[in-house]
Design goal:
single chain; alpha+beta; Umud Fragment, subunit A; 8-stranded antiparallel sheet
Length: about 160
């Protein structure tokens, strides 16, 4: 049974997905720390659009299964805003920039939206898909073995 806050979150998410599907850009607040340091939950928002021309490195909103339950039958999917780390045919592998090992899995058809812009609290818009943003994300992915230490340092600096 879902509590009322989860029901309202689910309704908001469903409406955002519906609007994006109709071609409307939706600005959506982000929670959590799974996309640190590029997207800060509780502070930043993202602008979502239709998920066209998906590529490795894109940040997307997807209805996915976490890897720790991917093998279970009837595993419950959840919405995540994470980066695509692999594409193979219809299969998509996602991972949050702030995650150390956790991945999620979905089909291309379960990618509901693409993040085209991150909006910072001061209103500054950081376009996604630029050479600089893609390069930074690629370097961050290469540094995966060091992420635990880099994220610790990042959190200490932000306090």
């Amino acid at each position: 049974m879902m509590d009322s806050s989860k029901k309202s979150d689910a309704l908001i998410m469903a409406e955002a997905v519906r609007l994006v599907g109709e071609g409307v850009s939706v600005t959506f607040p982000v929670n959590g720390c799974s996309m640190l340091p590029f997207i800060v939950g509780g502070c930043d928002s993202v602008i979502l659009e239709k998920p066209e021309n998906l590529r490795v490195g894109d940040v997307v909103l997807a209805h996915a299964i976490p890897d720790n339950v991917a093998l279970l039958e009837n595993a419950e999917k959840r919405y995540v805003i994470h980066r695509i780390v692999a594409l193979s045919g219809e299969n998509v592998v996602l991972m949050g920039d702030g995650n150390l090992v956790q991945r999620e899995y979905c089909k291309r058809s379960e990618v509901c939206a693409k993040v085209v812009c991150v909006v910072k609290p001061n209103g500054k818009k950081c376009l996604q898909g630029t050479f600089a943003e893609r390069s930074a994300a690629k370097i961050w992915y290469i540094l995966l073995p060091l992420r635990r230490y880099l994220l610790w340092f990042y959190r200490k600096m932000k306090k």
